[in-house]
Amino acid sequence: MFFGAHLSAKQKGKQKEPATKRSLSVAELTEQQAHMAAESEDVLRQNLNFDSEEEEEEEDREDSGIQSQLRDMLEECTTLYEAGCPAPSIFSWLDEIESSVSTARRSAEYWVVRAKVTEGSGSENDVLDVFEEAMKADAKPPEPIVQALQEFVLRMEERCKAKGIAMTPRQPLLEIGNISKDKTTTPSHLQVKEGNVFESSAIKYCIKEQTPYFQRLKAAVSDSVQSPIQLCAIVTPVRRSTRKSCANLPRMLLDHDTVVSSVSDIPEDMKETVLFKPNKALNMKLEDSIEQEQPVESQ
Predict the structure, then answer these.
(1) Which UniProt keywords apply (predicted)?
(2) Domain of 135: which CATH number?
(3) DSSP H/E element including 201
(4) What b/e sequence results for 20-42 when a residue is b if at least 16 CB atoms lie within 10 Å of its CB, and e otherwise?
(5) Bridging pattern class, strands 275-276 and 232-241
(6) Which domain does 277 fall in, by range?
(7) How far apart are the first and last CA of the chain?
(8) Nearest Cα to Cα of residue 120 among 163, 161, 89, 165
(9) Which of 56, 81, 158, 164 gets the highest tally of CB atoms within 10 A of its CB?
(10) Cα torsion for 259, 265, 266, 271, to the nearest 10°?
(11) How many folded domains does the chain comprise?
């Protein structure tokens, strides 16, 4: 009897465990689905990033390998040329390198080697044509090309002195260093911002006629260039004051070059050879100038 009473009391004191919940509410199910979707997106993003990094590393390795092979081939061409290999053979190898390696024309080393071989077998104008082609191809880095061009101009000047020929234009030699500085140097002036521009000024376009750089170099050797020099128009956006008092400035302070209010005002005979030179102070490009002048269509 005592044992039965004790067992009954123990069972009464034992708490009932809650039954397991076998269903989820709509809110809980939605929360779980969102959580699973977020986890899946994280995993997918990590996989994509990993794949992207692998692809970039693979491309870098391929580019590095191609550049290394290109460098080795160009060094071999230079060694063979300096050892006395005929220039036509070197040119054929360089042409083959250019056709088989897609990055050859964008390599400064390729153009430096080609200019060196051309200097030993061709005219000075032919060498200048090689450097001009390098600039058009936007070969990188520009420093080796600039250095090679400087050294060539010095050698050309020495040869002209030995022949008793005077190089008339002295300015090109001073400007060679500026070829690679347009994109690398930081302007010392502050860029004009919309907040500090007064309403008393306006954007206009200054037109200067200049001789293209390589034409000036070719014209430096007076006995080898018989063709007339072509001038080309350089258009630069400038900020000019609209105050009437500026009209009374001394003549030396007034514009000596042609200044027009719109790109469309450029004379027709100049439009064939015109070059647009950005103004870093205004941070304007040719596309910006044309867009500003296009009329807005009424809706």
Answers:
(1) Cytoplasm, Cytoskeleton, Phosphoprotein
(2) 1.25.40
(3) strand 201-210
(4) eeeeeeeeeeeeeeeeeeeeeee
(5) parallel
(6) 194-243+255-293
(7) 101
(8) 89
(9) 81
(10) 170
(11) 2
